[in-house]
Amino acid sequence: MNVFIWALAIFVFLLDWFSKIFVLRNLKLNESVEIIKNIFYLTLVHNTGAAFGIFKNQTLFFIVVSILAVITIVIYIKKFSNIHLAIKIGLALILGGAFGNLVDRLCFGYVVDFLDFKIWPVFNIADSAITVGTFLLIVNLMTKKRVAN
């Protein structure tokens, strides 16, 4: 049943959204707060581009791409119900993350990033979900486990 996919996608979206609201209410732009000494910080960044800030100021392009990704995933989920658990989890993570960043772009004109390890560009929960979901899909495709047992 696809309820699992929808529930996980909604959970990812809500976790992402509420974390961004918290950061927006408590940090100023480019302000950084050390959480774990010399390792992890909360740093508020407005990202008008894609991952790592590439393709800056292409908001309309990313809105269209995000909408197409969300529609494609929803159609796939509705069409195929007997898919492997790893694919369900991967699609749910990507769907929740894509929707989270899409809402940012529609509401603010940029994506709110705030997770900062200083050795990597600042990112957010939606970015993490998309990355983990994509990894799960790639691993699953490489092992050819497309149908549930």
Secondary-structure blueprint:
Blueprint: H1 3-26, E1 32-36, E2 40-47, H2 59-79, H3 85-108, E3 111-116, H4 125-143
Antiparallel strand pairs: 1-2, 2-3
Q: Strands across the major sheet, in which order?
A: 1-2-3
Largest sheet: 3 strands, antiparallel
- Tell me the strand percentage band: 5-15%
Give the beta-strand count: 3
What's the helix count?
4
Structural class by secondary-structure content: alpha+beta
The rounded Rg comes to 16 Å
Task: Pick out its properties.
globular, alpha+beta, three-stranded antiparallel β-sheet, 149 residues
Question: What does this protein look like?
Answer:
The chain has helices at 3-26, 59-79, 85-108, 125-143; strands at residues 32-36, 40-47, 111-116. With 149 residues, it is of the alpha+beta class. The protein has one domain. It has a 3-stranded antiparallel β-sheet. Helix 1 runs parallel beside helix 3 (85-108) and helix 3 packs antiparallel against helix 4 (125-143). The chain is globular.
